Amino acid sequence: MSQVLYVHAKGGPPVGHALARVAARSTAHLLMLSELPEGVAEDAARLCASVVAPSAAEQRDLVEVITARAREVGAEAVVTFSEYAVVAVAEACRRLGLRGAGSAAALARDKRLMRAAWERRGVPQPRFRAVAGLAELEQATRELSCPLLLKSAWSAGSTAHQIIDEPAQAHQAWSRSRQVMAESAQLGFAELHVRGASEDFIVEEIVSGQAEEWFDGPGWGDYVSVEGAVVDGEFRPVCLSGRMPTVAPFTERAGITPAAVEGGAQDRIVELARRAVDALGLENCGTHTEIKLGADGRMWVIETAARFGGAMTVPQIEEVFGLDLVGLFTDQLLGRAPAWPTRALTRADAGRAAGSLVVLAVNGDGTPWERRARWDSSAVLRAAPVGEDSTLSVVRESSLPDGSPVPVYDPAGGANTMAGLCLLSADRPQSVVRDFAALVDALPDILPGYAAEEVRA
């Protein structure tokens, strides 16, 4: 059986889900760059022929660690689904002569390089500036039109986002974003290969979205993601995922598959995603491309990634369309002939709909909860106000242990302040939006209290 080295780091689809599907198609060897979530270690020991965790000192030359381990196990493919390990794995694959994202992988990771590549190819995007210091940020606030969004060039999960409404706020925004990136690195949510990546930022103009013109029903956010893959240099779209409106500044609350977008609009969105991915020159990788939707058919590409979407995007696609993206990608890297979709799938191809909800201590109107709460997955499952045809579950490996205090939402911390992740299956996309809206409103009453004092905004 083929030998595959699975490089695990934080982020991406649930490792339990992905690892099982890699192991179903190969003899899997696990290289752990971060600890496995609680409850997954036993599965990993059962699924993998070997499990190795390099020391912090060894990880200083991460590409060498990966290549050396790949040679030791005779790996015919090296795979990762973590944003933070994509560049290192791509370089390791290049050195080993194996299929991978290729030498351009950093363009799908460093937002400065990504945006510059799109600018050269005329891909529509918000106006932006790369900034490496406060002076450059202050200059950018004079050259661009406020409000602006400052974000790390290497972050994920809306971490370290800061809105700048006027130039005078640049200093505070710069200080706060750098502080959050340092804190995220301590939690393991940081680029693992590029030294000093936490010091690199971009600032961009905030474009105005208009969800109502694009979606068949209320409650949707004003952007979508195009899920797909690059197969021997060719972009293969898989489907569209929609969102509920973000929590300020731009933290994702929920993703829904498929997006309730009509066929003609979906075709135009997919074509823009194709232009964005093609501009980066990737070779073999998953892709996740976010596109902002505006009035009168306008669109802007926000970012893309050389990996599949995180949270529950991959399991949602498998449930809705019956597509095992991890398995297809594993076969692709091993030189087999996986049956990728010949076009982007639509609602007509879906048996049901699925969505994942990030539990944040924020009400549906954006205001913080008035009291602290304890995370209790059983209480959520018992009292969630979902439809009769809907099924709700809690993704335990992506949730805090029961009894933990629900973190106070920090706009700069983004998804780092989540308490839990819920997965919902329903008859159609609009039902997922309806049930999630009801659950968001009900959570402060469903979860037991943690402390008597109120939470300040």
Short description:
This protein is an alpha+beta fold and 457 residues long.
What descriptive keywords fit this protein?
457 residues, alpha+beta, Rossmann fold, Dna Ligase, domain 1
Structure description:
Among the domains are: 3-98, Rossmann fold, CATH 3.40.50.20; 127-205, Dna Ligase, domain 1, CATH 3.30.1490.20; 352-457, Alpha-Beta Complex (Aldehyde Oxidoreductase, domain 3). It has helices spanning 15-23, 41-47, 62-73, 86-96, 111-121, 134-143, 170-187, 263-278, 313-321, 325-333, 377-383, 429-446; strands at residues 3-8, 27-32, 48-52, 77-80, 128-131, 148-152, 162-164, 201-205, 223-231, 234-243, 254-257, 285-293, 299-305, 353-359, 371-373, 391-394, 420-426, 449-454. The chain is built from twelve helices and 18 strands. With 457 residues, the protein is of the alpha+beta class. Helix 3 (62-73) crosses helix 4 (86-96). It has an eight-stranded antiparallel beta sheet with strand order 13-12-9-10-11-14-17-16, with helices on both faces. A four-stranded parallel beta sheet has the order 3-2-1-4, with helices on both faces. A four-stranded antiparallel beta sheet has the order 5-8-6-7, sandwiched between helices. Strand 12 and strand 13 form a beta hairpin.
